[in-house]
Design brief:
This protein has 234 residues and is an alpha+beta fold. 35% of the residues lie in helices and 21% in strands. The chain is built from six helices and ten strands, in the order αββαβββαβαββαββα. The strands form two sheets. The protein has an eight-stranded mixed β-sheet, with helices on both faces. It is globular and about 55 Å long. The chain binds zinc ion.
């Protein structure tokens, strides 16, 4: 108790004594945290190299357990992430055992982990292709991919013949409002693991980081196909 009082700055956190977490409401497994932090660092190197997370944009997260996620700290360069750029938040988006500020969009991540408990990773990127296509489609509230073989890279999609609607939400700085808006749409379309924000970027989620990265790659390919078609039809 003495150590808890001395080391713990607030009553709900867990703490480390001699390298071990003592019981508390916010206890999480530090080995799983380290593995997930490394997965985020590796994802950042890849996504930045593709040009999809330019100028400190984007945020990534990975689940540690049923009530904690590892997430990138706001404003960090995604091609140069290190362990100090990854923090832990609970499913309300509150920092756990750290003083750093999570991304303003943390609520959009926690929303997905809450809605879809099987989610193990969420990636949000800001690519040129998604930005341009969603701006071009002003007035349209979804991109419907149909007939593309690569649609099958999205979890739950088994045929190129399906029409896969990916919702476009208008960009806003009011993240709680966007979280509420996305909640309603996602509840009605649980089979499409992605959405776009106009002039901004994409969100996608999956059971693990490898699958989530596959989603990002597939969506970027599909978006570029649509852009090429628009150019050719001019
Ligand atoms: Zn963003």
């Amino acid at each position: 108790m003495f150590y808890r009082k001395k080391l713990l700055p607030h009553p709900v956190g867990a703490g480390i004594i001699f390298g071990q977490f003592f019981p508390g409401d916010s206890m999480f497994d530090i080995t799983t945290y380290a593995q997930q932090a490394q997965a985020l660092i590796d994802a950042g190197r890849f996504l930045y190299a593709q040009g999809w997370s330019t100028a400190t944009s984007s945020n990534y997260s990975a689940r540690i357990d049923e009530s904690h996620i590892a997430i990138t700290v706001s404003g960090r360069h995604k091609g140069q992430l290190s362990a100090g750029d990854i923090m832990v938040v609970d499913l309300d988006g509150r920092p756990v055992q750290c003083q750093t500020r999570p991304s303003a969009e943390t609520l959009l991540h926690t929303e997905l982990y809450r809605l879809f408990p099987e989610t193990g990773a969420v990636l949000h990127t800001h690519s040129l292709g998604v930005t341009v296509l969603t701006m071009h489609l002003k007035g349209q509230d979804a991109v419907v991919f149909e007939g593309y073989e690569l649609q099958k890279a999205l979890t739950g999609q088994t045929t190129h013949e399906a029409a896969v609607p990916v919702r476009i939400f208008d960009n806003t700085q009011d993240i709680p409002e966007l979280a509420a808006e996305s909640r309603d749409w996602l509840a009605a379309h649980p089979d499409v693991p992605a959405y776009f924000i106009r002039g901004h970027g994409l969100y996608t989620w999956a059971k693990d980081m490898a699958t989530c990265l596959r989603h990002v790659e597939a969506l970027e390919f599909l978006v570029n196909c649509e852009l090429e078609r628009i150019r050719m039809e001019r």
